Amino acid sequence: MVDRINDIAWQAHQGSVAxxxxxxxxxxxxxxxxxxxxxxxxVLQLLCEAHTEDKLEQSSLVQQIQQIFESIAPRNIRxxxxxxxxVREQQLLWLEEISRDCENQLLWSQEIILVKSNIFKQVIKExxxxxxxxSRLPGVTHKNKIKNSPFQGMLEAASLCVFFxxxxxxxxxxxx
Length: 176
Fold this sequence. Notes:
- There is one protein chain.
- By secondary structure, this protein is an alpha+beta fold.
- The protein has 7 helices and 4 strands, in the order H-H-E-E-H-E-H-H-E-H-H.
- It has 2 domains: 4-113, Alpha-Beta Plaits, CATH 3.30.70; 117-131 and 149-176, no CATH class.
- Strands 1-2-3-4 form a 4-stranded mixed β-sheet, covered by helices on one side.
- The radius of gyration is 22 Å and the shape is elongated.
């Protein structure tokens, strides 16, 4: 049984900013970088902090973050603005502070655009992910249960395509 409430990777894929921060902090912990993030006007504003400037080397950090985002593939997030600075623990309103005085607050800033995979690949991936199972009631038998097979996801995706094609044809027929 899949418990999605505790599945941080799935929540990050769904676009949860808290889950994305968790994944980023987990993956960047060995390099001494901590992140904070906030979604603002369609852009995920990401703040990377470290105790020393050398840990925030722009090209390698941007590449690491890009790879992490590609593995997460968060829904509804296309643009990420990466900001970096030396750690300031007590500053909670960091985005406002950066917006007011960007020159003195940041070491560097760079925006990246996340490349979305093909819509068909996304649909197939959704169908291939394990689904939560409903608990069975005692005494109830399920005779017609579909067994999980490698082709079940493709069958579901094909059924979905046929449904949308039929719906489109019906709408077209109604309009003509």
